Amino acid sequence: MRSLALLALAAAAGCSRPATRQNLRVWSMWGGDEEEVFRKTLNAYDPQLENLPSVSDDKTIRALVAGAPPDVFTLKDPSALGALAANNALLPLDSLFAAAGLKDDDFTPGSLSQCRFRGKLYAMPYLLDCMVLLYNKRLVQTPPRTLEELEELCKRLTQRDSTGRLTRIGLRPPEALHLLGAAGGQFWDERTERVTADHPRNAAGLAWYKRLMDAQGGNEAVEAFSAGFADDMGSNNPFFKGLAAMEFSGQWNANWVYRYTPGEEIGVAPLPFPASAPELEGTAWLGGNLFCLPREGKKTAQVWEFLKWTQTRTGQLQFASTMHGVPNQRAILKEPQLRTGAPWRPLFARFLDLADSPRASHFPVLPVAALYQSELTAACDAVRYGRKSPQDALKTVQAKVARDLEKYR
């Protein structure tokens, strides 16, 4: 049963240094320049650690099923964590965490909750992603605080040429999860252990998204304009080129904007919130790099020494200063070397501050998280294309996800 469940997931997935060096096998998601950065981080701990780069979650899951996993591995898609934990594929880390003297309060808000399933710790974070509002200061003097302000601003910022074609939009169409996160989306009821896809806040978020598309010329026009956008990873990023005045994105942009644009023209602000929910002010949406141990691993003690090192000042600064991720240790957020020096560092510091907000949130860790997120994206598309109302689209999500969740009861 466990092997079948993990194979189904695979199909869906698309400190001090140890006294004796160990030839640990690490499988990581990073490739290219990022793999070089991670390799240097491993070398700072122990050059003998063996890293296999660019490993997909599919490959890792199949290795778990075959009983031949690495000693430690990353998850490219954190939504896989719940299903792996539910199928007893991962080693709970609670006793190791406690014995190491680590404390929840030392961690950035949201970093450990991304690693817990049903109250148990199944992963360790090693840097976070912090998604907030980026805006072009030439076009936006004061960033919008609420979604309603954002909608009105987008209406004014959207431009067309003499033929009526869009030449600029106010906000690049956000991903469904970032949109719903800004709207204060509710996805799971901890008390009843039930999905809440049809929560009124989710419906309000999708309704706002439809209004946003209309404010920028209608979904068809925005879709046609967005189809010409180049890859985010470089100088042709549409936000950098002024094709969108704002976007929801993460901290890696702090370095890029100074490489590809006059960086002082870019501002960072919390995600806007519904005017009816002022308690959501200061919202950021989090992702993260998760490291997991196979339940039947043979080198648990040695791997844990490495993971414990990743939580030290040395380990956090080594990776954060080169990978440009947000430290998950709160004390490191204030480190001067992450905030000053290079021209882009002060902008990066804004992400560090926003990641420490009590309103920073993330998607719940569930065994059906991958399906749930996919269905929410489909619901968002159905609403923006006018095929369904927000309520009807979310009813479909609720039914599908709740039905799939029953397999894990």
Automatic annotation (TrEMBL):
GO terms for molecular function: maltose binding. GO terms for cellular component: ATP-binding cassette (ABC) transporter complex, substrate-binding subunit-containing. Keywords: Signal, Sugar transport, Transport. One of its GO terms (biological process) is maltose transport. PROSITE patterns: PROKAR_LIPOPROTEIN. Belongs to the bacterial solute-binding protein 1 family. This is Multiple sugar transport system substrate-binding protein.
